[in-house]
Specification:
Order of helices and strands of chain A: EEEEEEEEEE
Number of helices of chain B: 0
Radius of gyration of chain A: 13 Å
Number of strands of chain B: 11
Helix content of chain B: under 10%
Helix content of chain A: under 10%
Largest interface: A-B, 24 and 23 residues
Radius of gyration of chain B: 13 Å
Order of helices and strands of chain B: EEEEEEEEEEE
Number of strands of chain A: 10
Oligomer: heterodimer
Largest sheet of chain A: 6 strands, mixed
Strand content of chain B: over 45%
Distance between the termini of chain B: 41 Å
Structural class of chain B: mainly beta
Shape of chain B: globular
Amino acid sequence: GAGVSQSPSNKVTEKGKDVELRCDPISGHTALYWYRQSLGQGLEFLIYFQGNSAPDKSGLPSDRFSAERTGGSVSTLTIQRTQQEDSAVYLCASSILRDNEQFFGPGTRLTVL
Amino acid sequence: GQQVMQIPQYQHVQEGEDFTTYCNSSTTLSNIQWYKQRPGGHPVFLIQLVKSGEVKKQKRLTFQFGEAKKNSSLHITATQTTDVGTYFCAGRGQAGTALIFGKGTTLSVSS
C-alpha cells in the first residue's frame, strides 16, 4: 500500500478482555515500531522490530503486552487482560532501515471501559 | 536510561511571531529527528540531523544540532496558522536502539 495502515481504527473493550491491534507497514520497510500516545502526551516507545533480529521489547510496560511480526511484514500488538490505564492511541510506524525517517500509521484508539 | 526532554510544553503566539522549541538529551545522540503532529493526526517526519553543530533549513523552519550532540532546537520564523500542532524531537543514543521521543511542544497560533 501507499502508507502504513492500522486496524481497527477504534476499539472499545471491557476491562479484562484481550485485544489485538494490527499494523501493515510500507512494503520493503525492514523496521517496525509500536508506540502508545495518551491524550495530550508524547509518544511512549513500546517495541521495535528490525528485520530478522530479536525485537527490542524494552518499552513494553508489563507482561500483558506482547507483539509479533510475521514474515517480516505485518505486526500484531496484543494486550491481555486490558486495564483502564491501557486506554490510549496505539501508533505503528515503519522505516526502510533503523535510522531512517519513520512513517506513522493513523493509529488505533483503544478505550477500555 | 536515555531521556529526551523538550521545552516548553505549550506555546501560544500571535501570527507573525517567532517560535522556538528546545530538546535536551541526558546522553550523547547519534542522530535526532523532528516530527510534527497536527491536531487529530499522526506524526509526520520533518528532518533528521546527524552531524555535530549541523544546521538545516526548510523554508521558515531552522533546525540545529548542538556541538555536543546532546541538544537540538527548532525555530520557526514568522509563524502562520498552518504551523499549529505538536512538534516532537526524537533522539537515538549511541547504542543505536530505539528512537526516544520527547513529550513534544504544542504550538497554537492566533491570527
